């Protein structure tokens, strides 16, 4: 696990070549993450292999969750938002009527479609 006390270092793209070995060594020891800038604009980053694996796992998990939301949104694309909110409100209220003690939310946020 990465030491949370490591720092983020900013390096200008033109300085990478002469400092590459030092940067890779520093990053591989997880002492820092490096942001590469070109004319003051971040254009890339140098991270450890462990950080890259963690980022890849996060991306795959995020894609799975996003896919589920996209599927839900597509299924209800033709439904007016007010109607969806009303239906969800009825569904959430059902357990309370059944007496299981679960309170429905006070307000149902508009879906992001």
What can you see in these coordinates?
53% of the residues lie in helices and 17% in strands. By secondary structure, the protein is of the alpha+beta class. It has two domains: 69 residues, 3-Layer(aba) Sandwich (YefM-like fold), CATH 3.40.1620; 37 residues, no CATH class. The protein has a three-stranded mixed sheet with strand order 1-2-3, covered by helices on one side.
Helix content: 40-55%
Largest sheet: 3 strands, mixed
- The value of Rg in angstroms is 24 Å
Within the largest sheet, what's the order of strands? Answer: 1-2-3
Overall geometry comes to elongated
CATH H-level name of the largest domain... which superfamily?
Answer: YefM-like domain
* Succession of helices and strands: EHEEHH
Q: How many strand elements?
A: 3
- Structural class by helix and strand composition: alpha+beta
The CATH architecture classification of the largest domain is 3-Layer(aba) Sandwich
Distance between the termini: 37 Å
The number of distinct helices, counting runs of at least 4 residues, comes to 3
Strand content: 15-25%
What top-tier CATH class of the largest domain fits best?
Alpha Beta
Q: What count of domains describes the coordinates?
A: 2
For this structure, the CATH topology of the largest domain is YefM-like fold
Q: Mean pLDDT score, rounded?
A: 81
């Amino acid at each position: 696990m990465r030491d949370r006390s490591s720092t983020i270092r900013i390096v200008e793209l033109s300085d990478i070549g002469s400092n590459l070995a030092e940067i890779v060594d520093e990053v591989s020891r997880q002492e820092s993450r490096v942001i590469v800038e070109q004319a003051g604009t971040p254009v890339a980053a140098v991270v450890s292999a462990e950080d890259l694996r963690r980022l890849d796992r996060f991306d795959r998990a995020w894609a799975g969750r996003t896919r589920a939301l996209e599927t839900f949104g597509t299924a209800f694309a033709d439904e007016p938002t007010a109607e969806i909110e009303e239906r969800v409100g009825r569904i959430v209220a059902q357990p309370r009527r059944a007496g299981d003690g679960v309170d429905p939310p006070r307000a149902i946020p508009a879906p992001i479609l």
